Amino acid sequence: MIYPPAERQPIVDDLHGRAVPDPYRWLEDPESPSTRSWLAAQDDLWRGHAATLPRRDGWRARVSELTGAGTVGAPLWRGGRRFFLLRTAGQEHAVLRTTGPDGATETLIDPMELDPSGLTTLDNWQPDLDGRLLAYQLSRSGDERSELRVMDVGTGRIVDGPIDRCRYSPVAWLPDGKSFYYVRSRQVCLHRLGTPAADDVVIRGADRSYGLGLSHSGRWLTISAASGGGNDLWLADLSSSSPERPDLRVIQEGVGAVTVSTVGLDGRLYLLTTLDAPRGRLCVADPAHPEPEHWLDLVGPDPEAVIGDFAIIGDGVLLVGRTRHAISEISVHDLRTGERRGQVPLPGLGTAGGMSTRPEGGHEVWFTYTDGVTPSSVHRYDARTGQTSLWACAPGTVEVPELEARQVVYPSADGTAVRMVVLARPGTGPRPAILYGYGGFGLSLTPSYSSYILPWVEAGGIFALAQLRGGGEEGAQWHRDGMLDRKQNVFDDFTAAAERLIADGWTTAGQLGICGESNGGLLVGAAVTQRPDLFAAAVCSAPLLDMVRYERSGLGPSWRSEYGSADDPEQLGWLLGYSPYHRVTDGVDYPATLLTTFGGDSRVDPMHARKMCAALQRATSGSRPILLRHENGVGHGSRSVSRSVDLAADMLAFLAEHTGLSDQAGDR
């Protein structure tokens, strides 16, 4: 394959006495004529290759068919109204709907009605305490920067906004329904309806990633801010201080633990924390004395399960949500003592989403449920009967293939036991396989319905999801063991998973593809450069790859606590130890590699993939292609269904071609 020429410039930085070459720095500028010309040539190259991929249209049709299951979200209750998201089979985006006390349902926000091009997304929304007003955020072309508006729910009229720079901002409405706390430009502000955003009072001015919460009574305000491997947390009593100047009292600061707090209807402060409990514990305290030395364990840690959620319902009933090796469970406890009373029945071995209750109390809780073959649905638990029932199923009907799921436990390079879930149709002998991973930011890979995974398995392939260190599957320590100076553990866990799949006869190195997105794209880049012999193909989507300069663009500065900083001599050493762009070596037969980027991505700069693509194309000694798929009009996260389907089909077609999968599903 003849690749577009890419000039290698003699740029070498002296960083803390280290010579760090960066020959493709010119590709960081997306507006330069040379970058535009190079990118156009790469686009032509990808389109030419994509046109040759067998049954690409068949992949697209099957992914689209399975996506037709649609989505339904758990209800959020406010003032007798319920608000929920619903996407039917024919819709490009989920629609925000509301059902009033009279049972009538109406649409509040349909992104396609606002923008028929499909480029506008609904990023976040929050009704006030009475369900009378709705704060919601929209962004366009994937930039995720979000403009906030306020709607009168009864009339649909916009009564405030737009307020810019509100990226996925939490909103905490005050009881008067005329003001709310929110985050703008990474600062906590108080906004009063009808006043200019420029006049908003800044409550916390430091440039940080904030969370907000307000008790149902409106009395207690909580503010959290990411800090190192945890968060700082403050509590204010608004009955004794003004909303403009809340008297924020420190709950925890600089302790390296994650704590989420809320004041319940009973007046107690509830704290879900990893402090002194890497798998989590639930504590209670007096809001007047919120410091850790005053916390009392209500539900202590489980040696094998991670606490991730809790809800208070009924007459003194506490529900605690856990994941045990990434499988969800919900236990029932006495609210006063924490004593365990029983278990909430779940539909299967899958993932239960966050629990939703009526703010004023009640005996019910709602949660979503999904697993490998079950589209997300909403279930309702009744504390009076102890029964769980299906409350709202996915709106579409789809036929899913039969498959087997097997959990494999394998040793990593240092002997640590790691788990992976292998999905396959019945059969024996090695088959083309995709190994998927993430391994970062404490995020967990749990069972879920995927219109991307199912077609691959249906066609006779194997799909494996590795639950790597850096994620949250086994708690806070599992995350810490895959970050900063221990990031290499993540890559070792991933390559050990590949070796186990081969050793157990699931696949071979010539049939094994790998895939990852964002931080998972970094994972794939590291795997390709550290063990190119182990894989036949790779898809590296929206990746971080130049770890020396990742801090200079996108949301990079906010990730220093996860990766470290090149400004620190020791941390630069960590980063250079695995930075994929800097580990590309001339004369290596690299796997067939597809890098995917998105023009509106404001989280991970597409420059990472551009520079990596140029480096790999020059270095590879083999005939397997190195290609770049660039897409304008979308960003890192939400996008229209048709765009998601097209991307998934292209990725599957590429992996199928370069792992040797005979796509029997393509002719359905």
From TrEMBL:
InterPro entries: AB_hydrolase_fold, Pept_S9_AS, Pept_S9A_N, Peptidase_S9_cat, Peptidase_S9A, Prolyl_oligopep/macrocyclase
Every Peptidase S9A N-terminal domain range: 4-392
Source superkingdom: Bacteria
Gene Ontology terms, MF aspect: serine-type endopeptidase activity
Record field: catalytic activity: Hydrolysis of Pro-|-Xaa >> Ala-|-Xaa in oligopeptides
Official protein name in the record: prolyl oligopeptidase
Keywords: Hydrolase, Protease, Serine protease
Enzyme category, top tier: hydrolase
Record has Membrane as a keyword: no
SUPFAM superfamilies membership: alpha/beta-Hydrolases, Peptidase/esterase 'gauge' domain
Family note: Belongs to the peptidase S9A family.
EC number: 3.4.21.26
Keyword Ribonucleoprotein: no
Peptidase S9 prolyl oligopeptidase catalytic domain location: 448-660
